[in-house]
Design brief:
The protein folds into two domains: 9-52, no CATH class; 56-201, Holliday junction resolvase RusA (60s Ribosomal Protein L30, Chain: A), CATH 3.30.1330. A hairpin with a 6-residue loop joins strand 3 and strand 4. Helices cover 22% and strands 33% of the residues. It has a four-stranded antiparallel sheet, with no helix packed on it. Strands 5-8-6-7 form a four-stranded mixed sheet. The protein has helices at residues 52-55, 79-96, 122-127, 131-141, 197-201; strands at 9-17, 20-28, 31-37, 44-49, 57-62, 106-115, 176-184, 186-196. It has 203 residues and is α+β, with helices and mostly antiparallel strands. The longest helix is centred in the middle third of the chain and has 18 residues, at 79-96.
Amino acid sequence: MTDGWAAPVHAHPVLYRAGRKTVVCAKSGTHAWLLLTDARTRLPLGLEPCDDDVVSVAFRVDGYMPPKKDGANSMWGKAGARTLLKALRTSAAEAMAGREPFDEPVELELTVRTGTVKATELWARRSGGDLDNFITGVCDGLQAAYPGWRMSEEWADVREAAQPDRPLVFTDDSWVRRIVAEAVTGEVGYEVRVRPLHQAASR
């Protein structure tokens, strides 16, 4: 290991790659590192720079627009938002694959595909939803539902990891410190990527 490098093991779970057990470690300066250990002996093999795809979480939702939050009203109790929230959280839970949610500053990237027809009239552009409402909807949807929210039968068909009573990608959306978002034409759907802010800054 590099002289003078000392850091506690990062909070992210154990990942497996190329037959070796890899543990994501705390960053050193602006870089993240992987501590490689032998899967059989568990002895350390050394450090290597952390690949972007190891730490970041990315997923794609096809056929649905993101949930959107309008004003201060909660979207969790709205029947119209339930299907969209289910699609978001189910896809996110699959991408997380059991890892713990981020509990540190993160960057969120969101690309929304609004359809194949370009909207030129104001009413047409607004009919699908504004990008800022999608951003807040996704941020709210990737944390736990508001305190006091009660489980309902409408969520019985959703896997346990995606249930609204638990944080999913980050422990709280106050950790989202940078947002990169765009709306583009294309088949309806969206892509989301969340990465630690220190990793985004080093790109």
